[in-house]
Amino acid sequence: MLPHEREMVKRLADQPFTLLGINSDSSRSALKKILEDEKITWPNIYNGPAGQGEIANRWNVHGWPTIYILDHEGIIRHRGLRDKAMEEAVVELIKKIPG
User: 2-94 architecture in CATH?
Assistant: First the structure.
């Protein structure tokens, strides 16, 4: 998924869009290494080890990655989309933002 996400972030750089990672890696240092090794440039939040973080518990996440797509009002519109379907959903939501 990462190559597609990197390209999507570049393509949508001038749009009202943010890709945000909520990570449940084993430690902050493990997350830092992954971000550097994979050249992940978008914002990421460390949420504690898998199954222990407040965000994952509140959002009922039991598998990684779990992808949520929210609209400009913060409403979840899609869950679990990947690659092209994910980008198409994001682009459609961007089009619906009042100008």
Answer: 3-Layer(aba) Sandwich (3.40)
